[in-house]
Write a structure and sequence with these properties.
A hairpin with a 5-residue loop joins strand 8 and strand 9. This protein starts with a helix and ends with a helix. By secondary structure, the chain is an alpha+beta fold. The chain is built from five helices and nine strands, in the order H-E-E-E-H-E-H-E-H-E-E-E-E-H. The chain is globular and about 50 Å long. It has a single domain, classed as Glutaredoxin (3-Layer(aba) Sandwich).
Length: 181
């Protein structure tokens, strides 16, 4: 058991330590306004990339609210930082649906969608996991189980920090402040 924990800690340290020096995987998706959005085109501003879906009842809105609050609290303008909310459910999350959803959050949030193949490629690049959960009653509604990581990318396009949905508002604020310096 101790060896497994030690191995996990070493791997996590290597991953997080390596992030400070590696470019975040670039991608292009469709924004909630219908325009192409490319990560590398955001150089000069910090970007928080979060994967989720608009039909989520808890994790996704909570995390987006924390990110929005953290950015507002640090006085980040749309020139300084942006939250990129990447859907894991492109079948339901069209640009129009994403646009209505992100308007609930006060801050520089862009909703990103694309074809299922495009979304799958971005998820693979970021090692994000998602799985449809069928409606237990046999209906057409379904849920999505997914990893809930936020990738903080600096102004130079380097992945610097990774947060999970359990991190506090204070944790997000601290790390966003570092990126905005």
């Amino acid at each position: 058991m101790k060896a497994s924990l030690a191995t996990a800690l070493v791997l996590a340290s290597a991953l997080l330590g390596g992030c400070a020096h590696h470019a975040a995987p670039d991608f292009t998706l469709t924004s909630d306004t219908g325009a192409p959005w490319t990560l590398s085109a955001q150089r000069g501003e910090a970007v928080a990339v979060f994967f989720g879906f608009t039909h989520c009842d808890d994790t996704c809105p909570d995390t987006l609210a924390k990110l929005s609050t953290a950015m507002r609290a640090d006085g980040a303008s749309a020139r300084d930082a942006e939250i990129a909310f990447v859907t894991i459910d492109p079948q339901r999350d069209t640009p129009a649906v994403m646009h209505r959803y992100i308007r609930r959050f006060d801050g520089p949030v862009v909703g990103l969608t694309g074809t299922p193949a495009q979304i799958a490629a971005v998820m693979r690049a970021y090692h994000v996991w998602a799985q449809k959960i069928p409606d237990p009653h046999g209906g057409s509604n379904y849920d999505e189980a997914h990893s809930a990581f936020t990738f903080l990318i600096d102004r130079n396009g380097n992945m610097r920090m990774i947060h999970n949905d359990n991190d506090s508002l204070r944790d997000f604020r601290t790390d966003l402040a570092i990126l905005l310096r």
